[in-house]
Amino acid sequence: MLMIRSLRTQLGPWASRASFSTSAAAVEAERTIRDGYRNDWSKEEIKSIYDSPILDLVFHGAQVHRHVHKFREVQQCTLLSIKTGGCSEDCSYCPQSSRYDTGLKAQRLMNKVCCTLGMLEKQQALELKKAGLTAYNHNLDTSREHYPNIITTRTYDERLETLQYVREAGISVCSGGIIGLGEAEEDRVGLLHTLATLPNHPESVPINALVAVKGTPLQDQKPVEIWEMIRMIATARIVMPKAMVRLSAGRVKFSIPEQALCFLAGANSIFTGDKLLTTPNNDFDADQLMFKILGLTPKSPSFSEEIPVPESERCEEAVYVAG
């Protein structure tokens, strides 16, 4: 306290009280560490965390992460597309939509995977559970308010209903979103608020940066900056402490130091392999080098079987393999 008072004295009129106030990230991280899981977050609470000074946000995201997880462990997952292109949906970011001319050639469904894809009815979810499905990915993509600007062929409530059926069937939920879709910061907060106030938090929360693909309506979107990813990751870590927060699509654009900040802020899962279905990703050797430089260790898989995923990170049909 003596040091702070002395510094205030030296700075004189330039030292506002706000400069030395405790950030919301600090307050809420401490409460998360003390009280654990909660799903009664207000949108204002999450916004105050998201708006905290970036260094505070990284530090306190790291505090929560180290309290709940083995902080050097990072889960490595891969995606295998079982049906490429020819999708009837109109997701504005997706090169696989048949409505856009992206130069992608549609392929038939692979013979090696048989699963129900896309929206689920209750009975379908139960049948998938009976067949041995352990996890299901179904991203919300963005906030409820911005969603109609991105997708019109399926509703936000239908997505939430699918997550409900998956959860009720006893299947783990993987659900996150994409930033860089032309949304406002309020929409990013809204997405996190929706996820964090589900009856149970998703076991996995992918945070994707838009990979703008020529031929899609979002081809000219401004690239996502690393600070935007860090804010999303650290806020997600504080409000959903037990979730695997996955640094997902768009990672290929970020350097090793930039990715290191994401891991420090609370990310503990990545997709590995030189291609994420139809878009580029960091290759295996590059990731191995990064793990060595940063002292990261692969997280032991919680399951070894292949897991059918209906939407992956961009609504494509895929198999998700955790390892």
From TrEMBL:
Give yes or no: UniProt keyword Transferase. Answer: yes
What cofactor does this chain's UniProt record say it requires?
[4Fe-4S] cluster; [2Fe-2S] cluster
- Please give the InterPro entries that the UniProt record associates with this protein: Aldolase_TIM (IPR013785), BATS_dom (IPR010722), Biotin_synth/BioAB (IPR002684), Biotin_synthase (IPR024177), Elp3/MiaA/NifB-like_rSAM (IPR006638), rSAM (IPR007197), rSAM_sf (IPR058240)
GO biological process terms, semicolon-separated: biotin biosynthetic process
Pathway connected to this protein: Cofactor biosynthesis; biotin biosynthesis; biotin from 7,8-diaminononanoate: step 2/2
Q: Which UniProt keywords apply?
A: 2Fe-2S, 4Fe-4S, Biotin biosynthesis, Iron, Iron-sulfur, Metal-binding, S-adenosyl-L-methionine, Transferase
Q: Where does [2Fe-2S] cluster bind?
A: C114, C174, R246
Cofactor detail note: Binds 1 [4Fe-4S] cluster. The cluster is coordinated with 3 cysteines and an exchangeable S-adenosyl-L-methionine. Binds 1 [2Fe-2S] cluster. The cluster is coordinated with 3 cysteines and 1 arginine.
Stated EC number for the protein is 2.8.1.6
Residues bound to [4Fe-4S] cluster are: C87, C91, C94
Source domain of life: Eukaryota
Radical SAM core domain location:
1-251
Q: Any keyword S-adenosyl-L-methionine? A: yes
Example of a GO MF term: 4 iron, 4 sulfur cluster binding
GO cellular component terms given for this protein:
mitochondrion
Q: Which family, according to the similarity comment?
A: Belongs to the radical SAM superfamily. Biotin synthase family.
> Per its UniProt record, what HAMAP family does this chain match?
BioB
Name the record gives this protein: biotin synthase
Species in which this protein is naturally found: Dendrobium nobile
